[in-house]
Structures are given as C-alpha cells and as structure tokens.
Amino acid sequence: MFQAIRRINEFSKALDIITGSHRRLYNRSLVVFSTKIW
Asked: What highest taxon heads this organism's lineage (predicted)?
C-alpha cells in the first residue's frame, strides 16, 4: 500500500516536471483525496 502511494508520488513528480505547476495543484488535491480514502 505504501509502495503504491510512493509510486504515485514519483509519477506525479514526473508529471510536474513535464506539465508544470498547473498539474501540480491537481496532483496535490489528488493526494489529499487518496489519503482520505486510505
């Protein structure tokens, strides 16, 4: 479970580098949403 979250975080960081800060806000809200589910 923690490995999956870590993998998602690494993937989101890669997307941040590619797409920039606009995607970063989306990923941050996604992480908060996923942590509430877990």
From this structure: Eukaryota
